[in-house]
Design goal:
The chain is α+β, with helices and mostly antiparallel strands. A 4-stranded mixed beta sheet has the order 1-2-7-4. Strands 3-11-8 form a 3-stranded antiparallel beta sheet. Helix 9 runs antiparallel to helix 10, helix 11 crosses helix 13 and helix 16 runs antiparallel to helix 17. The chain is built from 19 helices and 11 strands. Helices cover about 50% and strands about 10% of the residues. One of its GO terms (cellular component) is endoplasmic reticulum membrane. Belongs to the cytochrome P450 family. This is Cytochrome P450 family 4 subfamily F member 22.
């Protein structure tokens, strides 16, 4: 008998009897059964892995593959990584098999015909892969980005009215105000200088956070002038999530929350959640006191914000969203709305600075709209009068999509148009950046050409060739909001300033949660003479509870 078995039986107080012998036999049998079961499970995993590998042989993969890291060395989050990715795209134009380590195969889809079966599949067949989004869960909860199944379907139905044109139209005043605040800041920093260089990512990010706080909470944080605890926490959370992705030992939650980063993440989450919860609870109390009709009457003449719309939302059974649900959706909107829009807008301004002929044509559009107006303020109907500006924005989103990848995990086999099959359980990465730079889909993909999106001469291509806001059932619900904000900011910026690229600072791309740069996007900003119309006055917004 094994000494450890004797010791265990002694601890249990079993003396050397026939009963003890039976206990020993039972214990050994249980141990052997556990070992056999573990070995059997391991062999089953090996067999399933071998079977999956056989089914994946029909997919091409890059030649350079490390025995331990797989292809991870080729997909670095920097300029070199994107250049290596482009070399692979020049050879493989549809589906690319890459290995994330020795045992994790990932299929990267880079062609609209092969993206379609995955993006158009139901959320049950191709749900978001939880591994790639799990780090956001403590911050964003079960908002639209991370929820799934019936909860996601219910929330999607309830949130859709929040992005109806009738709700978005009043936000135009907020977009105008926040853009004006950014421009006033530029003019102060310019002083008497004819031109100065500014980091667009820094200024545009604060501008989008400013407008989002007004649109979501009806709160004027003045964050473009001075940082608040809430805004600082959001910026810190985004940075911490990115940093955690590149520290493998922080993938284990127990280790992460013992680290300095983990403690900072918890504190920042608490700040964000406290602010959002207090706004919701105060608004909920006002709604209970006044009733829905009286509350809406008191709101007349003021913009209904995101929290208002969610508090009034009811499903088909008359059930409302809980405070926790509303908090998750508000936090999700703040995260997705500021990061992606600030990235997209910064790259648009970069491209227009790089191509002055397109910049001038956009400027002529906005100058034509502003003729005879007292205020330099765009209205909702003006957005349709900016066709070339819209073309420039779309081409920039093609060339520099804010979100470069979205992931799905297939819960069942998915057939591709050429007869190949994506096996059940495989992670699929819809490579938005790769699709937008696929030479078989976009000729001269590296060239910035707004005329690709000319509505007068539309080009024949798949709707899934251009997916900066994703596509299918889980596409971006806020894309109309983002496009409206970008058009306002671009138009007013070009009306008031001339932009040029700062040649002393090289722009090097850095794909993280969004497509950033290593050292910002620095542009030379030169103020233009006033054209007669004046910038709109700043409007005050009711403050929420103290955070």
């Amino acid at each position: 008998m094994l000494p450890v078995t004797h010791h265990l039986l002694d601890l249990l107080g079993l003396e050397k009897t026939a009963f003890r012998a039976c206990a020993v036999s039972a214990l050994l049998l249980a141990l052997l059964f556990s070992l056999f079961r573990g070995l059997l499970g391991f062999l089953q995993l090996c067999w399933a892995f071998r079977r999956t590998c056989r089914r994946l042989r029909c997919f091409r993969q890059p030649q350079r593959c490390h025995w331990l890291l797989g292809h991870l060395g080729m997909y670095l989050p920097n300029e070199k990584g994107l250049q290596d990715e482009k070399k692979v795209l020049d050879e493989i134009h549809d589906v690319i098999l890459v290995w994330a380590g020795p045992v994790l195969p990932v299929l990267v889809l880079v062609h609209p015909d092969y993206i379609k079966p995955v993006l158009s599949a139901s959320a049950a067949v191709a749900p978001k892969d939880e591994f790639f989004y799990s780090f956001l869960k403590p911050w964003l909860g079960d908002g639209l980005l991370l929820s799934k199944g019936d909860k996601w379907s219910r929330h999607r139905r309830l949130l859709t009215p929040a992005f109806h044109f009738d709700i978005l139209k009043p936000y135009m005043k907020i977009f105008n105000q926040c853009t004006h605040t950014m421009h006033s800041k530029w003019r102060r920093q310019l002083g008497q200088k004819p031109v100065a260089s500014f980091d667009m990512f820094e200024h545009v990010s604060l501008m989008t956070l400013d407008s989002l706080q007004k649109c979501v909470f009806s709160y004027n944080s003045d964050c473009q002038e001075k940082m608040s605890d809430y805004i600082s926490a959001i910026i810190e959370l985004s940075a911490l999530v990115v940093r955690r992705q590149y520290r493998l030992h922080h993938y284990l939650e127990a280790l992460y929350y013992l680290s300095a980063d983990g403690r900072r993440f918890r504190r920042a989450c608490a700040v964000v959640h406290r602010f959002t919860t207090e706004v919701i609870q105060e608004r909920r109390r006002a709604l209970s006191r006044q009733g829905a009709e009286g509350w809406l009457k008191a709101k007349q003449g003021r913009t209904l914000d995101f929290i208002d719309v969610l508090l009034l939302a009811r499903d088909e059974d008359g059930n409302e969203l809980s405070d926790e649900d509303i908090r998750a959706e508000a936090d999700t909107f703040m995260f997705e709305g500021h990061d992606t829009t600030s990235s997209g807008l910064s790259w648009v301004l970069f491209n227009l600075a790089k191509y002055p002929e397109y910049q001038e044509k956009c400027r002529e559009e906005i100058q034509e709209i502003m003729k005879g107006r007292e205020l330099e303020e765009l209205e909702w109907d003006d957005l349709t009068q900016l066709p070339f500006t819209t073309m420039c924005i779309k081409e920039s989103l093609r060339q520099f999509p804010p979100v470069t990848l979205v992931s799905r995990r297939c819960t069942q086999d998915i057939a591709l148009p050429d007869g190949r099959v994506i096996p059940k359980g495989i992670i699929c990465m819809i490579n938005i950046y790769g699709t937008h730079h696929n030479p078989t889909v976009w000729p001269d993909a590296k060239v910035y050409n707004p005329y690709r999106f000319d509505p007068v001469n539309p080009q024949q291509r798949s709707p899934l060739a251009y997916v900066p806001f994703s596509a299918g059932p889980r596409n971006c619900i806020g894309q109309s909001f983002a496009m409206a904000e970008m058009r306002v900011a671009v138009a007013l910026t070009l009306l008031r300033f001339r932009l040029s690229v700062d040649r002393t600072r090289k722009v090097r791309r850095k794909p993280e949660l969004i497509l950033r740069t290593e050292n910002g996007i620095w542009l030379n900003v030169e103020p233009l003479p006033r054209q007669g119309a004046q910038a709109p006055p700043l409007r005050a917004h009711a403050p929420p509870p103290r955070n």
